[in-house]
Design brief:
Blueprint: E1 22-31, E2 34-44, E3 49-53, H1 60-68, E4 75-80, E5 83-84, H2 90-96, E6 98-101, H3 113-117, E7 124-125, E8 128-129, H4 131-144, H5 162-175, E9 180-184, H6 192-207, E10 211-215, H7 219-225, E11 228-233, E12 236-242, H8 248-257, H9 266-271
Parallel strand pairs: 3-10, 3-11, 6-9, 9-10
Antiparallel strand pairs: 1-2, 1-4, 4-5, 7-8, 11-12
Helix pairs in contact: 4-5, 5-6
Length: about 270
Amino acid sequence: MQTMTDHDDVAPRAAAGDVPLLRLRGVSKHFGPVEALTGVDLDIPAGMVTALVGDNGAGKSSFIKCISGIYVPDSGEMWWEGSPVHVRTPSEAATLGIQTVYQDLALCDNLDIVQNMFLGRERLRRTGLDEVSMENAARETLTSLAVTTVRSVRQQVASLSGGQRQSVAIAKAVLWNSKLVIMDEPTAALGVAQTTMVLDLVRRLADRGHAVMIVSHNLNDVFQVADRIAVLRHGRMVDVRPVAQSDRQIVVDLMTSGSSTRTAGPRESEAGR
């Protein structure tokens, strides 16, 4: 069984312009007798939104946890900006520029926005915390992402709406020089207006050059914001294609049977990004 390797000679050959930000080949992960992932291949390019979809138990959570350093794959290779890498811990992923926003957001309700964004990475001065520097950085990050619904960066997170909380969690990821932002069900339990706000933010991240991966069960959201769709089924990657070459029924076919003979309808294709 081939393991994650640092040897350059196994890297796929590609022209410089074709090298994705993250390339994964043959990623497998098992938990006892359960094979959560089997030989998964995926390229994640910068400046695009890649949607990862699949039915419950398809392996989506295991896959993003392998990328994020929470799980170490049993086999497979990973290249970051064309160079082979190991990612064994979340801190190693963060050092590369991989940040993950999980469904629970990992925000502290009793702290304000600035305190949450710098939690565990506070800026210090000789006399204590550099509150001014952190406040300015938090405000600048939110402004750069066009997050305008938050009235103050000193607002307690407990007082924020679901959409605002998601925006703060995404801004926190961006603050730490992330190049790839992974989002697990970013619009779950949000209303229509809040969902639109979050999807607009996702699109802005990609337009700024970030690679974005979203995991979502909501195909309406996927077709609204994604450039590419990757479909997992029973731990295997059954299809990766541009949104313009797909529609909801094709994706459902892929999720449930692993294949589809349909052709994307013109209205769905034009709606895709």
